[in-house]
Amino acid sequence: MNNKQDLPWDNPRFRNWVAVARACHVLERTLTAKLAPLDLKPAQLDVLMNLYRHPGMSQHDLARKLLVGRSNITMLLPQLEKRGLLRRESDGKDKRILRLELTEAGITLLMKALKVHTALIETAMGQSTLEQCDLIGEQMRKITEALDSA
Fold first, then answer.
1. β-strands 57-58, 86-90: how paired?
2. pLDDT in tens, 96-122
């Protein structure tokens, strides 16, 4: 960089984006630590939450919803299935499609994990008023849309 060129950290957008990224990183690290006693990782929690909200979802739809490749889902599901947290069943109309359902054990673990996750979110977002919280969410959705369409 030459001396006349502006440095990125002098730009408020850059500085604030770094603050957002750091907050996300700390939140993810803290969530990982707090889920450890439940023998659950954040990616596994994402799977359980989505299957609870959308029972019968296909593996393909789950991968799209979580913004990951199907190979990531293919690696996660057997671990959760082996623990008795979910089951995969063939679709009645198309045997190539596997439908995913949480088991009672999966729902029970999810409810415990949601208490941990919700408490962490409350700590993080409790630093803002409800109005500020809504603005943060609105801005993050705009950023997601802008980056998705780029």
1. unpaired
2. 888 999 999 999 999 999 999 999 999
Return the number of other C-beta atoms located less than 10 Å from residue 125's C-beta.
14
d(CA 46, CA 52): 10
CA distances from 118 to 6, 132, 138 (A): 41, 18, 20
Cβ pair 23, 29 in contact under 8 A: no
Q: What is the total residue count of the chain? A: 150
pLDDT of residue 2: 54
Q: What's the rounded Cα separation, in Å, for the pair 32 and 80?
A: 17
Of residues 36, 38, 66, the one with CA closest to residue 50: 66
Q: Letter for the amino acid at 105?
A: A
**Strand residue runs (E) in 23-117:** 57-58, 86-90, 98-102
* Tokens found for residue 105: 């054990």
Cα distance between residue 114 and residue 95, in whole Å: 33
149's tokens: 């369409």
